[in-house]
Amino acid sequence: MMEYKILYPEAFPIVECSLRHGEAIKAESDAMIAMDATVDVEGKMEGGVLGGLVRKVFTGESFFMQRLVASRGAGKVLFGHPLPGGIMDVELDGSYGMIVQKGGFLAAEESIQVDSKMQGLMQGLFSQEGFFLLKLTGRGVAFLSSYGVIHVLNLEQGEEVIVDNGHLVAWPDYMDYKVEKASNGWVSSIMSGECLVCRFRGPGPVLIQTRNPSGFEGWIQSIVKKGS
What we know:
- By secondary structure, this protein is an alpha+beta fold.
- The chain is built from four helices and 18 strands.
- Strand 1 and strand 2 form a beta hairpin.
- It is globular and about 55 Å long.
- The termini are far apart.
């Protein structure tokens, strides 16, 4: 297994990966912060041209990924993400996939496949993530990023939880979920400020972020408008 450490986990974390000679890791296109001179970085289209286009157009992820390989000997790589938030490592054993909302994928071992997954019609129409999400499969470690800290809700068999769409990060592909109104009626849902939510049923973990990127974006836009 790849050796790594998540540094400064309490605020603005980064990941330090120690690559063996010939070992590689793939990451979002702007994730690399620093690397040893023994490491090379190159652009890679995960899933080919079509896969890159789907990720770029429908999920907001990069068309190209970075491939960082220790081609001239062992070396270390530091990578992070642009938002002020957490990074969590998730180990997949190959028996299930992990569904990741847009902006939530940061990096993974080369043994992890990063594909696009199409949601059902109703989920796609009403969820903030749209029709396409990312799906991680394979055996190995993946790194997920968030706005705010990542918190894990571990659900027991039959247990349900309702999560605001903007706070979702990831969940296993074997979990059932549906998008619904926060309240019984649309007017009440809109007035409450929680228009659409996701209902998950256990067993399984649901990864959420403690801050909502859309809320932060709206706050920034309101400041810009006041200053203009």
